[in-house]
């Protein structure tokens, strides 16, 4: 039997064919050597069919096509009496992939990343894909600072044309930044510039922040921070010439050298506004932050174009273009700017799209939007909508995009993309004081019940003095207009016989309903009613005024309370606040349809003012007063107290104010607290999640016959640390009394902690 060989291994395709054939008509096609691949797959890649003419050109194309599938490591074509025979040798399949020595990453995560490189179980084995997978594995370790990582691949032949792939990883030690040098700086010291960078040499915080591990992305961000620092200070021609990264032969230490040219300092010579400003030109000019004779600032330049663009966006001109045209005088080192305004066309919103909310209902997000469909685009409303959705605190990310509608010049969509987060929380609080030792509190809440936006929470306090259990439910949108409704059920037990205040016990059970009505974007009023019953217990050491009250009104009192409140919140963030304020005013009155007759008024105000980009001052004021009416006193168990967390740190909770004949605190009918706190990121830690503060607290509690003054005023000072840790917020404080008296009880150290589920 004679056979004519048409072509051989792939390398022969790139030289002149050794065997040439006389074109012939294909009578039949036969495939030999396949094990997993279907014959039909081979037929589909052949450029010739039965009955067609075969020649050298088509043979060449057939072998190219079959090799290109990646299924075969050898392809040959033969002909026998008009029959085209395709002989193939299949590549092996991957039976298993095993990764040994990997500790920094879960093995499943590494296998998933290798799939993108083409290496996965049951796939056809390809040496190129294996090499790519090894490089990807190394890249992930290098991104974590492990430059000494070693990855060796071992391929084992298995029966039935299969292979096993084994990757042996030696992770090595993390490469640390040994030194960072800045060359060419004269205006600012090297230490000042290094403080701007997140990358640094190892310090005591590096084990958490990882700031001593080199990353190209982190270095690029640091370079941009440095560039902004110079250009915001007038150095228009500042340039980073080069950065050199070197690593020691043992791959343990990294050296970074940054070469800069500072250039001269520029001042602003003139500022103009031109073009169609839509609104009155003087109004636009008021938005210009760049002023003549001031040092050039890129930040002010960028902020000006942003403010003008946002102002035009409130009129519906979403695609306005504001271009700051510079006029540079390199001799005088001056620069002028002409803000050329092109408003473009006015546009309206076609559709608002919500995405990413796997649990939260669309309506929960949509009802927070102030921009509506089919209305003119308003940039202020878009910004307010994002802020309101973010304040729901149901999402870890809220992003809003406003793309133009293709094919139109006056329409755009609003695409809101959110990322769900855990909205259930479990909180634990603890404090150490001289009277009670360790006091524990806890609570469980779900702030987005079944994706409805409703809030269900429980609170529990198990201290030996205050034992509180409460359950609250709130629907923030009881009506479509934004009125909220909530219900509360609570049980409060007070055992004041175990601490250093006038002894008594009380057990209160109550329930109530409350409503909230928004009166503006940042303000709301609330009102409600509740009914509660209190049982009083006295001891032989209880003061006479307590005994007189029980003798007059009995040990059991029932009260119907009416409440009225007002709140305003303009904070830029509810977690890391740097600007704005939050205020609350609250009044409760015992209605004259039951036993008690009293009223209480409370007001508190926290104000945040940014001193700089990293320093914030916070002032806090708390005022409360109350009394009885209809010739009845204010119940002693409704008294105001002060001292401890939230009022005057450094003193034991509830220990300030009037005292009985045994020198024990009684509480009072009015409370006055004021404090100031200066906050900044923790020095040496370039992560804003850790905040250090210094505080000065003062406060006092007065009885119904006491005169306001300094006799009862107490003050303290100290430091506090807040850490938004992966486990939840942690807060520590240490307060030192400034004017303590011999009878005062102190509590210097406190901490609270919480976590999310």
In short:
The protein is of the alpha+beta class and 757 residues long.
- Would you tell me the overall average pLDDT? 84
Q: What are the low-pLDDT stretches, counting only 5+ consecutive residues below 50?
A: 1-19, 431-437
Strand content: 35-45%
Could you estimate the helical fraction of the residues in percent? 10-25%
How many distinct domains? 6
Shape: extended
Instruction: Specify the CATH homologous superfamily of the largest domain.
Output: membrane protein fhac: a member of the omp85/tpsb transporter family
* CATH domain topology of the largest domain: Porin
Q: Which CATH architecture of the largest domain?
A: Beta Barrel
Largest sheet: 16 strands, antiparallel, barrel
Distance between the termini: 77 Å
| Number of distinct beta strands | 36
Structural class, from helix and strand content? alpha+beta
What spatial order of strands do you see in the largest sheet?
Answer: 19-20-21-22-23-24-25-26-27-28-29-31-32-33-34-36
Name the CATH class of the largest domain. Mainly Beta
- State Rg: 37 Å
Our count of helices gives: 12
